[in-house]
Amino acid sequence: SFPRLLSPLQLRSIRLPNRMIMGSMHLGFESAPDAFPRLAHFYAERAKGGIGLIVTGGVAPNPEGSFGPDGTVLANESQLDGHRLITDMVHAEGGRIAMQILHCGRYGKHPDIVAPSAIRAPISSIVPREMTEADILGTIAQYGRTAALAAQAGYDGVEVMASEGYLINEFLALRTNKRTDRWGGDLDGRMRFLLDIVRSVRGGIGPDLLMSARLSMVDLVEDGLAADEVVTVAKALEAEGVDIINSGIGWHEARVPTIAHTVPQGAWSWATARVKAAVGIPVAASNRIKSPELAEALLERGEADLVSMARPLLADPAFAAKVRDGRAESINACIGCNQGCLDPIFSGASATCLVNPRAGREIRFKASPSLAVKSIAVVGGGPAGMSCALEAARRGHQVTLFEAADELGGQFTLARQVPGKEEYLATPRYYASELAAAGANIRLGHTATTAELKDFDQVVLAAGIRPRRLDLPGADLPLVASYDDILSGRRQGGERVAILGSGGVGFDVALALLGEHEPFYDAWGIDRSFATPGGLRPAATAPAPPRRITMMQRKTERPGGSLGKTTGWIHKATLQRRGVEMLSGVTYERIDPSGIHILFNNEARLVEVDTIVVCIGQEPRRDLLAELIANGKPVHLIGGAREAARLDALAAFEEGTRLGLAL
Ligand code: MDE
Ligand code: SF4
């Protein structure tokens, strides 16, 4: 049971039924013509799912503050109808929603960005313009106007985004604030902008609505705020009548992972606890909190009063209702992959969720009961097959799912051997129990035959892929292994290993061969004693790797170029730290028992190894296709069986869901 998580909280005129907040997420379609109805359905579904409070994606107070082409600004009454649609639909579901006001400062992706000082961010190519006194006063007033408009639109409150390295955070930190006027210098000067904004916002929303401020608990960049400065700012916010302090962790330019799956769950609660101990108002913990058990434990330990979860609400809109109704074990857990949500956002596309393709597409992906019940065979229990079978079964079809292995999950089960990816296994577990609940017949350890499939009305071929074999002299020698040999645990690597192919699978294999991760705080130089501004310290010396690894690829570009934008750099840094060699532009010549002969920089070289792991892509597995077509069976081909060029779980789940809704 979750007594603390489920206890209500009164904030001014607003009563939260529980301590779960959905954290702010930019979804990437905010400026699309149909954005408001889509957003309204997205938030309404989460409200229906029982969340205590929803915080919207960031809305800028003026055009300079917007993300860029896909950002939104609320500066006049012209958009109020759109926002009212959101608040009306959320309230109709019994929910509460606060609008986040976010000025992106030097992180905006457009030419007119501004900042306290004209210093370019390391993750941007644009130098911001230094704000004048008039810009600053104007911006403070615009925050108040935007807040007033939010109140007029029916929001229950606003959140002031003061973390993650955005404009207000840029004013707070010496790293980005070199001003010598009253907006810079000592902390009183640097926090003046934030406190004036908070006053302006309160003026805009009046005394009854709630105000949250998202404050950076630890900046994780050099010349970030010192430990006592964070506390001083928090106390000043309390004195100004802020109702909730929400946690931000690390700037976007920080070279420390903060929310990827490699970050231990609850890794940042120490930073929130320091602030919580110093103030009397409720404080919310955030980042890598995805299970109700951990959330309850944080509250029980007194490290926070609320928990803010963002991605877990993409993965399962009904998260809070399941906690409330004693069904927590049936939560579709976020696996921290960033593949469906943050990676697309940082690449200028829209967010959804890998394990819940319906997220952000609530209107298009509506399930309606099937009018004519059909018997459907789904061959293959990987991402495409599982998701298709589940949607079809939920809609009332008679579904039989055939899986040759002894468990569902397909390529997903290979995550088991990759340190930090263990939580990926929650996904097949979730689908398996939901399939059973929806009445699907699951036949594990069974390879379907054409004869068996003959009696079904429709067949979905989702048999996935098989690893592409290496076509090279010596490729059949015993030292050569396929990636699934290693990732399934069937084979172990030797002392010296060559990995052929440096895409996502090659990286997973390298990480698996390195074994357990180093302790997180040591590897990334995180100072939990918070003795230096920003909370960084030199990383510990990396332990010697258990084996020597050389990764290679034929492509000339840098290895890891195809990895996710928000996780690729983490994996690259981890492998580099452990001394993994990475070669690009390699020509493979031949393999013999001593290793692999290659051409590298126009020179012949023997890479002496005892194990060669082949990670050079996949081919579709379509064993039954020709026979089924010859028998005149309607066959649907989805997932890797249709297109294996890129092993793409995001696409596979989406294709499966789409087809399951259409059958
Ligand atoms: P890259 O390829 O890793 O780097 C490019 C080059 O820059 C260098 N670099 C740096 N050098 C020095 N110091 C630094 N701090 C630094 N940072 C980068 C790199 O070394 C590299 O140089 P090279 O090696 O080539 O010589 O980076 P990229 O430009 O491809 O991508 C950068 C990213 C923005 C993707 C990035 O760095 C990101 O991965 N950072 C982590 C972000 C993250 O995970 N943040 C925490 C979670 S998000 C969160 O908590 C709140 C999110 C707020 C909104 S959503 C809520 C509001 O509505 C996010 C919306 C963003 C919309 C744009
Ligand atoms: Fe979580 Fe991955 Fe879904 Fe993002 S795409 S919400 S990280 S499961």
From TrEMBL:
The keyword Iron-sulfur applies. Transmembrane segments: none annotated. One of its GO terms (biological process) is fatty acid beta-oxidation, unsaturated, even number, reductase/isomerase pathway. Its EC number is 1.3.1.34. It is an enzyme of class 1 (oxidoreductase). Keywords: Flavoprotein, FMN, Iron, Iron-sulfur, Metal-binding, Oxidoreductase. Residues 375-626 form the FAD/NAD(P)-binding domain. Residues 5-328 form the NADH:flavin oxidoreductase/NADH oxidase N-terminal domain. The keyword Chaperone does not apply. InterPro entries: Aldolase_TIM (IPR013785), FAD/NAD-bd_sf (IPR036188), FAD/NAD-binding_dom (IPR023753), NADH:flavin_oxidoreductase (IPR051793), OxRdtase_FMN_N (IPR001155). Its cofactor is FMN; [4Fe-4S] cluster. GO terms for molecular function: 2,4-dienoyl-CoA reductase (NADPH) activity; FMN binding; iron-sulfur cluster binding; metal ion binding. In the N-terminal section; belongs to the NADH:flavin oxidoreductase/NADH oxidase family. PANTHER family: 2,4-DIENOYL-COA REDUCTASE, 2,4-DIENOYL-COA REDUCTASE [(2E)-ENOYL-COA-PRODUCING]. This is NADPH-dependent 2,4-dienoyl-CoA reductase. The lineage of its organism: Bacteria, Pseudomonadati, Pseudomonadota, Alphaproteobacteria, Rhodospirillales. The gene is fadH.
